[in-house]
Amino acid sequence: MKNFMPVSIALALAMPLSAMAQNPPSPAAEIQGLRKEIEAMRAAYEARLQALEQRLRAAERVPEAAAASPAVSAEPAPVASSAGGANAFNPAISLILSGGYTSTSRDPAAYNITGFQLPQGSDAGPGTRGFSLGESELGLAANIDPWLRGVANISLHPDNTVSVEEAFVQTTSLGNGLSAKAGRFLSGVGYLNSQHPHTWDFVDSPLAYQALLGTQFGDDGVQLNWVAPTDQYIEFGAELGRGRSFPGSDTSRNGAGMTALTVHTGGDIGVSHNWRAGLSMLNARASDQALTTLDAAGNTISNAFSGSSRVWILDGVWKWALNGNAT
Q1: Closest to 89 in 3D by CA, of 101, 79, 99
Q2: What is the pLDDT of residues 100-140, one digit of tens each?
Q3: Are 302 and 296 in contact (CB under 8 A)?
Q4: Phi, psi values for residue 270, rounded to 5°
Q5: 261-to-61, 264, 279, 282 alpha-carbon distances in Å
Q6: How is 45-85 classified by DSSP, letter by letter?
Q7: What is the secondary structure of 251-304 as a DSSP string?
Q8: What number of CA atoms fall less than 13 Å from residue 178's CA on the CB side?
């Protein structure tokens, strides 16, 4: 009897504690706990978001600091090819076909520009009458390595002859707004000279180009361009060449037969207007250059010229494209 009473009292005290442990918490207590968990999650999310914003601001400051610094990276960034992957160094190939129909009141074979003598075999003039294939063009271009790219444009003439219009290598990673080109290329003088015929707005080149440059001036040599680091677009260019094209002539001279200097500037006015203006100087040397013209009676007169020709070009263009849509 003595041992039974303590055990009974212990069991009686333990029963209320067991009943309290088995009863679930009240709804108010559960809601309060959930609120605390949500607040903790919200605080952690806001802290993580602030950390990400700080990392973003730090990353945005890096290009600004690099642009302001005069230091230039010793390793130029490689130029990515549009083909990508295994085709990164395969050439891009294009074939542009050109044809037309010409009807003239005068015979194109007797074409001349009053007051100007043209080189023999000049492309100046409207071309042949009737249907013609025109000058078609085969173009090839590819990256050579991260620093150079190569370009070749082969002209296919209506008389079934082929000529190399352009074939040059050009730098891609000189930096500081500089770019260099070496080989055969269309000169950067004027506005239209460096553009290929299939991009012209008219079927032939302007009269001034025909009279002074024999339609279009191209040469073998080197070209250096520099774009100034200003909000206003300003570009300076210098060329040194063989001088093989009119107004120069191809000779066996050792030195350069052509020099050219160019400066171009332009910019946007609003979203629908932009402009460009330029000043160019081309100096070319000729030796026994064969020139032809017509006299008052329509007879052909042949002459020869030796000396230097200097051509100054002042060009300007204003373009309007509604809301910047060039089409």
Answers
A1: 79
A2: 898 988 888 778 888 888 887 778 888 888 898 888 999 99
A3: no
A4: 70, -160
A5: 39, 10, 8, 7
A6: HHHHHHHHHHHHHHHHHHHHHHHHS----SSPPPPPPSS-G
A7: ---SS--EEEEEEEEEEEETTTEEEEEEEEEEEEEEEEEEEEEE-TTS-EEEEE
A8: 9
For residue 117, CA distances in Å to 214, 250, 310 come to 10, 18, 15
Nearest partner of 141 among 98, 181, 94, judged by Cα:
94
Cα–Cα nearest to 265, from 224, 233, 231: 233
Residue 84 has pLDDT above 50, yes or no: no
Residues 47-61 as b or e (16 or more Cβ within 10 Å = b): eeeeeeeeeeeeeee
> d(Cα 55, Cα 180) in Å, to the nearest integer?
39
Q: What is the DSSP letter of 113?
A: B
**Residue of 266, 273, 276 whose CA lies nearest to 321:** 273
pLDDT > 80? residue 173: yes
What mean pLDDT is reported for the chain?
Answer: 83
Q: What is the C-alpha to C-alpha distance for residues 284 and 253, in angstroms, rounded to an integer?
A: 13
The reported pLDDT for the residue numbered 234 is 97
Residue 143 amino acid letter:
N
pTM for this entry: 0.69
Q: Which of 217, 218, 235 is nearest to 226 (CA)?
A: 235
Residue 198 pairs in a beta bridge with none
Q: Would the pLDDT of 220 be above 90?
A: yes
